[in-house]
Amino acid sequence: MDIQKIVRRDLKGAAAYVPGKPIEELERELGISNIDKLASNENPCGTPETAKKAIMECLDKIYLYPDGESYSFKSVIAEFHKVRYENVFTGNGSDELLQIIMHAFLEPGDNVISSQHSFLRYGQMTRIAHGEYRQAPMTEDMRYDLQAIAGLVDKRTKIIVIANPNNPTGTIVYDKEVRALLDKISDDIIVILDEAYAGFVESKDYPDALKLQKDYPAKPIVMLRSFSKIFGLAGVRVGYGIAPAELVKYINVVRGPFNINMLAQAAGIACLKNASQHAKSSKELCSGEKKYLYESYKKLGVKYFESEANFILVKIDDRHDGKYVVEELLKAGIIVRPMKSWGLTDNFMRITIGTQDQNKRLIKELTRLLNKDSKAAADVK
Ligand SMILES: Cc1ncc(COP(=O)(O)O)c(C=O)c1O
User: Fold this and answer.
1) Ligand 1 atom nearest to CA at 194
2) How far, in Å, is the centroid of ligand 1 from the Cα of 226?
3) Residue range 93-119: mean pLDDT, rounded
4) Distance from the CA of 5 to the center of ligand 1, in angstroms?
5) Which of 33, 224, 226, 288 lies at 20 to 30 Å from 194 by C-alpha?
6) Number of H helices and number of E strands within the chain?
7) 289, pLDDT greater than 70
8) Coil, helix or strand at residue 190
9) For residue range 84-101, what is the model confidence (pLDDT) as tens digits?
10) Which of 18, 41, 119, 238 to mutate to test the pocket of ligand 1 (most atoms within 8 A of CB)?
11) Domain of residue 73, residue span
């Protein structure tokens, strides 16, 4: 077999997405335990009890296919957001929903515009769906530059995708900036507001995607939400979107008939009905720990970007060797996310905000590593 003859031309040499290192992998590699994974922006408060209970109650039924229409789940989402049932769609994580949208709407050669230093999956998915991926530069304060995005729009622009808050910078775009973009672009460009981290946002200037949909009824504005973060269901894979019904119709054509499993539907319903306290305390923990981490980073001389999400992008000083620091943190049982693949240097890391104990341990290890000359240590290795 000659794989080069078989594989799609535009996929040759493409690499698979590398997620944050799983705990089990580090245990296998280094033979250590007591590992803190601060690499994939999961919720350190875990999963709401009500969602676990809902999953347990499903177990006797899992020999059956799930409801392919997700009727109950979509009804609960519609009620929760006060929108019509026809505007709701659900998926195996918001990641799958992004893929479905790209497959439903991109013709070969259409382009998708997003930003530099944003969620890596946007580019991958665009290319897999035969599109061209364009990235606008960021503002100096590491935010999406929506004016620069508008400048990249042309006749083949089909989708603009905005991670809000952005991963990995944790920054947001403001309501007035989104409105200015919407005022400029054609009604035939889909604007996706990817709000995976919305549950953690504190800023008053955060756009209300549903209000934008109301104010711009002619525009295909899509709001995407994830249960992986604020509701602690990353392992179950569940996300949803709200969009004009005309779009939802075609999203349903492209999605798999049972793309959202029974456990995910049950857990999602339980979260929206009975987990507001869990979401509140997760947000409060994150907000309080952010203050501790900012203070600690300041003392350590580590540059950080103020975040509206449950992670912080940091940059350690250039006298240190970032790769070495990441490796040493791994040896100490702390997994963080190096940022080279995001177009940043080795000295940038994205670190999830963990529990108080996890954050203290992180700062203790960073203090140890940054107080010695990690560049010199890396050189003698
Ligand atoms: C910006 C952004 N969007 C979407 C996702 C996908 O989330 P999920 O598929 O777990 O719902 C992530 C995951 O980390 C993300 O960071």
Assistant:
1) 3
2) 7
3) 97
4) 33
5) 288
6) 15, 13
7) yes
8) strand
9) 999 999 999 999 999 999
10) 119
11) 49-275
Ligand 1, atom 2, residue with closest C-alpha: 196
119 C-alpha to center of ligand 1: Å?
8
Letter for the amino acid at 108? Answer: P
Q: Which atom of ligand 1 is nearest to the CA of 165?
A: 1
Distance CA 139, CA 116 (A): 10
Q: What is the pLDDT of residues 14-65, one digit of tens each?
A: 888 888 889 999 999 989 899 999 999 999 999 999 999 999 999 999 999 9
Ligand 1 centre distance from Cα of residue 233 (Å): 12
pLDDT computed for residue 324 by the predictor: 96
Q: Which residues line ligand 1 (CB under 6 A)?
A: 41, 93-95, 119, 163, 167, 194, 196, 226, 228, 234, 239
Residue whose pair of structure tokens reads 């994974």 in the numeric block: 37
Q: Which residues of 67-86 are buried (b: 16+ CB within 10 A; e: fewer)?
A: eeebeebbebbbeebebeee
- Domain-embedded: residue 206: yes
Verify that 53 and 42 share a domain, yes or no: no
One domain for residues 57 and 112: yes
Q: Which atom of ligand 1 is nearest to the CA of 237?
A: 10
For residue 157, the 8-state DSSP code is: E
> Does residue 11 come out as left (phi exceeding 0), alpha (psi in the -120 to 50 range) or beta?
alpha
| CATH for 97 | 3.40.640.10
- For residue 300, is it within any domain? yes
| Structural domain contains residue 290 | yes
Tell me, in angstroms, the distance from the centre of ligand 1 to residue 18's CA.
13
Pairwise CA distance, residues 59 & 169, whole Å:
39
Residue 27: CATH number of its domain: 3.90.1150.10
